[in-house]
Input
Amino acid sequence: MDWKKRFNIIEGIAQGLLYLHQYSRPRVIHRDLKAGNILLDKNMNPKISDFGIARIFKPDELEANTNVIVGTE
Output
């Protein structure tokens, strides 16, 4: 895979996270982002998957305290 394709994948992931964190209503924090949770379509466009432990923020909520460690290795 050439570097242009790699960069496009990285940029697509970053755009997806920006959408989830800033522009989506409700705001979503994924909390388990890793290579295995990024899917590529036939055109090599990345899709963020596995929202099993995602945290959804209320519209007026800007931060949250979590006392439990979540995620997978």
Remarks:
- The chain has a mean pLDDT of 83.
